[in-house]
Amino acid sequence: MTHKKVSPNFYIHEFVPGQIYRSYGVNSQWFVRPEVVKLAEFYRKWFDAPVTINDWYWGGRFSERGYRVPDTTTGAKYSQHKFGAAFDCNVKGLSANEVRNEILNNQFHFMAAGLTTLEHPAYAPTWVHSDIRNTGNKDILIVKPMTVSTLSDRVAEEHYKWVDNEYELLKLHFF
Predict the structure, then answer these.
(1) What is the pTM of this model?
(2) Calpha distance 50→46 (Å, rounded)
């Protein structure tokens, strides 16, 4: 099967599971929003290190860290992955928390590249979930099951959580 590069550092099979790639080949790009590919490429350039999303093609264990088929049991029912609008990744040489801290400390640049949402480290302890959902926020949205919070533009370690129709200040430290 022909390899299709979708950016200087990524092939389409890094964004889709094997079943999609085997069925659609180079047309697998139909399942992934181009903004997601651009964001992954931005990560690669910003961190100046390889970024791993799916590695199933090379015999690795990751196959659903980009697009996920609608009937998968991985993740939430309405996960942004199922809309082709998210990816989970690791950056070579950095922990997930180091990557999140770098993103949050430079959120203006990452949001300009299309990032709108990260997953809370308690729910993504060893990887970084990134998505491009339309939030309308001026800050990166931090999501976790049953709650949503946004990063304060005042201090990177502070953010607000929606609680009973009011914002409550929480301190987060991404170790």
Answers:
(1) 0.83
(2) 11
